[in-house]
Amino acid sequence: MSEQFEYYKAKREQYVARGVGNGNLHVADKAQGSTITDIDGNTFIDFAGAIGTLNVGHTHPKITKHLKEQLDKFIHPGFNVIMYESYLNLAQKLTEITPGHFDKKAILLNSGAEAVENAVKIARKYTGRQAVVSFVRGFHGRTNLTMSMTSKVRPYKYGFGPFAPEVYQAPYPNVSEKAESLSEAEYVDQVIHKLHDFFIETVDPSEVACIVMEPVQGEGGFIIPDSKFVAAVKQICEDNGIVFVADEIQTGFARTGKTFAIEHFGIAPDLITVSKSLAAGFPLSAVVGKAEIVDSASPGELGGTYAGNPLACEAALKVIDIIEEEQLNEKAETLGYHLENYLYTLSEKHDSIANIRRLGAMVALEIIDPKTGQPDKVRTGKIVQAANQNGLLLLSAGIKGNVIRFLAPLVITDEELNQGLAILKEVFDQVATTHRIS
């Protein structure tokens, strides 16, 4: 390692909070598309996308050019103090592109967790109820409320209690965990039955303000539910006056091959939370939904100092244009298809690969101990670490820490993709087992 690398590593250890995780200790110098170059000139193919934040890639030229022009106008007058056009235009655009043929309104915020918090506030205000239902394996943020809604204890919840009250976690199907004696349809029916029991045994639906659901669980391991289960959740909401909130923070903006993942299930949520790839790396989030629900809060009850920063809004408007102009929904499906096929080919050689799954370009695989079939968190960590050391930015996920997830920018070139996959193959050859069990 270079002197510069060691210098910045020491600086990080001396001045940055230990609680902030780093998958890669190199220091970025520049980034374009799906390639990052560090201060020593090393390049990294990005299969992480800043944890799903860069569907349109690093420093997209259309966004960079536009923001340089906007920067000369103003930086942040504060929407609560004086309005500006980009906030208004983005609010309108979000109400137009989100699912649902009904009048909608939007509020802009800073982060995904903040969006979820505000969706809950709005739902509580609208219904006059307190209880919140999320799901096992779900992830919704690191604030006290969203941490309470999150399922994984370490590293997100351990030692940070007490947690917010009136938060309950319902069952969510994961077909990779079903009993061998059950078909997938039978398993889904079983989970739906447990869901109905949940509202008898755990919390009465008349006390529930909202159900917050990731259409595809992100940090939980890219778990894709059956459409019958999603429909059952929506029906419970409709039957009991519960606000259905789709958490699209990781799944939104073309990641799954549709602008929003909930579209795959033919359901229009009452509220939808968005962030991450909304603004190409700028901190921005939103709650969008039925006008009568969003408007339940009075002036001054929602907002924030930096919420809806104008430069972030301008970036988001460009992102939405790019998704359409560059056909990123179609590119997501193509990218996901190629990734899935490559991983199946890789699995023919490596018996530690199991349960490959995807929706669009939201792709994941599980790493198991081939002798026991059990999740192998240690081996997963070694694979991710080796990838980062060899020029491929890679992320793990899953309740048991044994899922490798792929969140490459949707604008990735064939050259970048092939280079990344070549590194992935080398890493598996180095770290994973190299034979199939008989």
Q: Helix amount, in percent? A: 25-40%
User: What string gives the helices and strands in order?
Assistant: HEEEHHHEHEHEHEHEEEHHHEEHEEEH
The rough form would be described as globular
Compute the number of helices: 13
CATH H-level superfamily title of the largest domain: Type I PLP-dependent aspartate aminotransferase-like (Major domain)
Structural class: alpha/beta
Beta-strand residue percentage: 15-25%
Main beta sheet strand tally, sense and closure: 7 strands, mixed
From the N-terminal CA to the C-terminal CA, the straight-line distance is: 42 Å
CATH architecture of the largest domain: 3-Layer(aba) Sandwich
User: Average pLDDT, to the nearest integer?
Assistant: 96
Cofactor: pyridoxal 5'-phosphate
Catalytic activity: (S)-3-amino-2-methylpropanoate + 2-oxoglutarate = 2-methyl-3-oxopropanoate + L-glutamate; 4-aminobutanoate + 2-oxoglutarate = succinate semialdehyde + L-glutamate
Protein name: (S)-3-amino-2-methylpropionate transaminase
Pathway: Amino-acid degradation; 4-aminobutanoate degradation
Molecular structure report:
The chain is an alpha/beta fold. The chain has two domains: 3-56 and 327-431, Aspartate Aminotransferase, domain 1, CATH 3.90.1150.10; 65-325, Aspartate Aminotransferase, domain 2. Helices cover 38% and strands 16% of the residues. It is built from 13 helices and 15 strands. It has helices at 3-15, 49-52, 61-71, 85-97, 112-127, 144-149, 184-201, 227-240, 291-294, 310-325, 328-347, 377-389, 414-431, and strands at 28-32, 35-38, 43-46, 104-109, 131-135, 167-170, 208-213, 243-247, 271-274, 285-290, 353-359, 362-367, 392-393, 395-397, 403-406. The strands form three sheets. The protein has a seven-stranded mixed β-sheet with strand order 4-10-9-8-7-5-6, sandwiched between helices. A hairpin with a 2-residue loop joins strand 11 and strand 12. Helix 4 (85-97) packs parallel to helix 10 (310-325) and helix 7 runs parallel beside helix 8 (227-240). The longest helix has 20 residues, at 328-347. The mean pLDDT is 96. This is (S)-3-amino-2-methylpropionate transaminase. GO terms for molecular function: 4-aminobutyrate:2-oxoglutarate transaminase activity. Its EC number is 2.6.1.19, 2.6.1.22. Pfam families: Aminotran_3. Belongs to the class-III pyridoxal-phosphate-dependent aminotransferase family.
